[in-house]
Specification:
single chain, 148 residues, alpha+beta, 4-stranded antiparallel sheet, 2 helices, 20% helix
Length: 148
């Protein structure tokens, strides 16, 4: 890991560009962002929610749980952020990543009360089209990203 320590900053909107070695937290948009700690400069977004990451602020330092696994980046970095420190974690196999994606999908389905269907199966019925407002989490996240 290139970055062993992160400075945390509470912000309303994500600055552009992000500064290396800084963990930005927007409570309004329930999101934390930073540049990958390996040094590849890819932006890492960690949504804060009951089924995603949890933020722990002890009054002085920040921790994120669970670990940050950048499986979709070429670096495939994996690390923990504990008390503003970056702790490198071991690599995961493709099978481990796939199992975690399935676990995450099941956790979201359980939490949000969504019935799961087999991959490739058609939905039982087509839900009515609805438009997301900016008051929803996704809309707020998009507005935050655009600096609105």
């Amino acid at each position: 890991m290139l970055y062993k320590q992160l400075e945390h900053r509470f912000v309303q909107h994500a600055p552009q560009p992000l500064e290396p070695g800084v963990l930005y937290v927007s409570m309004e948009f329930a999101t934390a962002m930073h540049l990958c700690c390996c040094g590849c400069s890819r932006e890492v977004v960690t949504p804060l929610s009951p089924t995603d990451w949890k933020l722990i602020f002890d009054g002085e330092t920040l921790s994120l749980t669970p670990s940050v696994g950048n499986w979709n980046f070429s670096c495939r970095s994996h690390y923990f952020i504990r008390h503003d420190r970056v702790i490198e974690a071991g690599p995961w196999s493709d099978e481990m990543v796939q199992a975690e994606k399935q676990r995450d999908k099941a956790a979201k389905a359980s939490y949000y009360g969504i019935a799961q269907r087999p991959i490739g199966a058609a939905p039982a019925s087509t839900p009515a089209c609805r438009t997301e407002s900016k008051s929803g989490l996704w809309g707020r996240l998009q507005a935050w990203w655009r600096g609105e």
